[in-house]
Amino acid sequence: MPFRRLSLDLSIHVPSAVAIVLGLICGLIFVGSDFRVGPVRIRWFDIGLLWAAGLCLHRLLTMGLRADLGAMLMAFLSYVLYAVCNAAVQSSSETAFKEAIQFGLFLVFFLMFVHYVNTEQRTRQFLFCFLSVLWILALVNAYHHLSKGDISGWKELGDQKITHSVIFIVMTVMTIASNKTKGRVWWSGLLLLALIFLFLSGERKGWAGVMPALLVVVMLSDRGGLRWRALRQILATVLAGLAVVGLLLAISPYIPYLSKQVTSTVDFVILLFTSDGQSVEETTRSNNGRLFAIELGLRQFAEHPVFGIGLENYSKLVKGLAIDEGLQRGAHNELVRIAAELGSVGLLSYAVVNIVIAARLIELAMSIGRLEPDGRVRLRLGIALFVFGFLINIFLAGGGLNVYFYMLPAALAFSIPRPRKQTKPTSDVDYAPPSRI
Q1: Mind listing the pLDDT tens digit for each residue in 353-373?
Q2: What are the pLDDT digits (tens) for 104-143?
Q3: Are the C-beta atoms of 31 and 43 separated by less than 8 Å?
Q4: What is the CA angle 283-288-326, rounded to 5?
Q5: How far apart are alpha carbons 362 and 357 in whole angstroms?
Q6: Is 312 exposed, middle or buried, given 0-12, 13-18 or 19+ CB atoms closer than 10 A?
Q7: Cβ atoms 52, 103 nearer than 8 A
Q8: Contacts of 322 (CB under 8 A, 6+ apart)
Q9: What is the C-alpha to C-alpha distance for residues 61 and 42, in angstroms, rounded to an integer?
């Protein structure tokens, strides 16, 4: 029967199709363009996810849910339920509906990822599509600014500037975790280009997130836990990095781009931790916005400590103030935004979600020696993106990217089932099966 044969073929290829689509939309989330349907903002990420969900939602439901997903689902749904109810009571029904749709889409993304990106082949398909889209966006971003004569500070296209950080993390993790990429000239060239793009992008929050994220991955032992025997190499790497930073600081007065980045960063730290300091008029517009947002957000949290002022009400509040237009923007800090809008209840719920993800990553890291090679790659990438995402969310607030930066690491972590208990004693020598990814 032709129809039955066609159905069988489609069922075989659906998992690969889902892995490919998930890889594409994980890159496309950094595209700044979108359109609105009523109060709902529709991105390319959402369109791709809706298509993929429509393709295999029935199959996903019939497969059921793994028992080990329970903690993550309960923590995330508790946070979502509170946020939506908070919006319905303190903001508006439109805000509640919009947030419910966004959280719902990320929940579908999480469930689809853990059920389908769980083999070596689909991991390769996901990573290939993810990196391909990221590189296209990064090259477009670079070309856009270079064609205008902007050698550095590539921020005009919005979220595309973050692709330079994510590319460097993904490629470095793949180099650490996979034997296939090591020693390849073209791969090394791309990695060097990614590092150059990261530097020229001028994205300081990207710089702040990349190094800690990769340092944790480098310290992860293939036997489980932290690789303390590699501490000397790590220390040497850190010292070399500090030497490079020192060199950059020394030459920064002669390079305007470096001088601006260094001066702006120092100004922000001084103004953040001192009350006597220089006038905000003497620092950059970006620093002014961040400092004002932190002060206003913490003030609102102090005045409404339990339930906050309501979801999305920070933006409405700041736009109603008689202040410079440059300051009438978002909270610039996800923790401050949640504290101001959702209060201590929201902060606690958000913390529980992150604790559950971190606990899962730590549990898998302690037993990494019993994971399959593709599971090791996803684990290392999940750890790196979780650390990076948490740090970058300190400088970014109020959008889908904030949810993305903890739901993607969560999906990577929970796509790896808990390994079975080992019956044989492990060797004292680190062992890492070769990965074909």
Answers
A1: 999 999 999 999 988 888 888
A2: 889 989 988 998 899 999 999 999 999 999 999 999 999 9
A3: yes
A4: 120
A5: 9
A6: buried
A7: no
A8: none
A9: 25
